[in-house]
Design a protein that fits this description.
306 residues, alpha/beta, Rpn family recombination-promoting nuclease/putative transposase, RpnA
């Protein structure tokens, strides 16, 4: 170990020792901006996470280059900025890491779209056989596919009848943090489980407990602590949470509005059906209007349209 590495290790240990374990983690790794900031800052942490998600020994990850870096701390366009981390692993495999803070109704279609776009992103003149294997990994607070929810699901292109894998070049993985408590005790001694615990941790005490499990998690925890004290990073994390809350509120309002409008349309159609039946029986328009609760002129306009 070099002198520089020894100094850094000493600094990291001091940072961990100074943490008050009873404090809450204000902006943890489930905040998509903090997620991006930590794993863009610490290559060691990124290698550890990829190792756990892909079942690859860390020593076999020789390089992991982030293809879409951002300038940390700078203000972002909350509506259009995508905080997914796109990684070129060992120069021959493409990974898209996504931390999804809330539920997204169209996540399955959106993730397939991103996966296909990544897979087909190749230089002109190359042969199709030179496409790089591509994996989209979603870390979710709740599974986008409730009927197939599990702690960790891996989806591939396979023959439904025989199970034969058509190609191993594209895949979708989903880490469902809501299923963390359902992991059997005998399966909890794994790096993926430890990382999931870090993501869901509410206090620094919980985070510190996971830092003891691996050097890469320790690097992530130290980086998380350092970035948590950076005011610019904190402001962006706060902005992301505020945007997510506003977006979820907007979606709920839109859904409720749609249900109300749907009920209104159904009531109007029912009134039209009743009015039509009464008209066929020869009842006067004024009487029909009173029965169905509609204005006379509305019924006249409807008759004219028909």
């Amino acid at each position: 170990m070099t002198e520089k590495e020894e100094l850094r290790q000493k600094q990291e240990n001091e940072i961990l020792q100074e943490i008050n374990g009873e404090e809450e983690v204000e902006y943890g790794l489930i905040n998509d901006y903090m997620f991006r900031a930590v794993f863009q800052t610490s290559e060691e942490a990124l290698k550890g996470l990829l190792s756990a998600l892909l079942y690859i020994p860390e020593e076999e990850i020789l390089s992991c280059v982030i293809c879409n870096p951002i300038i940390l701390g700078d203000a972002i366009d909350e509506k259009t900025c995508i905080l997914d981390i796109r990684v070129l692993l060992n120069g021959n495999k493409q990974i898209n890491l996504e931390m999804q803070m809330g539920s997204v109704e169209n996540w399955t279609d959106r993730s397939v779209f991103y996966l296909c776009r990544m897979f087909t992103d190749m230089k002109k003149g190359l042969d199709y056989t030179q496409t790089k294997p591509s994996i989209h990994i979603g870390i979710m607070m709740k599974s986008p596919v409730p009927e197939d929810a599990a702690f960790y699901n891996e989806y591939a292109l396979k023959n439904r009848r025989t199970g034969y894998e058509f190609t191993g070049k594209i895949a979708l993985h989903v880490l469902d943090l809501s299923c963390l408590d359902q992991v059997p005790k005998e399966e909890r001694n794994s790096s993926l489980y430890y990382w999931a615990c870090v993501f869901k941790a509410k206090t620094w005490k919980e985070v510190l407990a996971m830092a003891e499990q691996s050097e890469s998690i320790k690097k992530a925890v130290v980086t998380l602590r350092e970035l948590s004290e950076d005011e610019k990073i904190r402001l962006q994390c706060e902005a992301r949470e505020r945007y997510q809350m506003d977006w979820q509120s907007s979606m709920r309002t839109s859904l409720e509005k749609g249900r109300i409008e749907g009920r209104k349309e159904g009531e109007v159609q029912k009134a039209h059906d009743v009015a039509e039946a009464l008209l066929e029986e020869g009842m006067e328009i004024e009487k029909i209007a009173k029965i169905v609760g509609m204005e006379v002129n509305v019924i006249r306009e409807w008759i004219t349209e028909k």
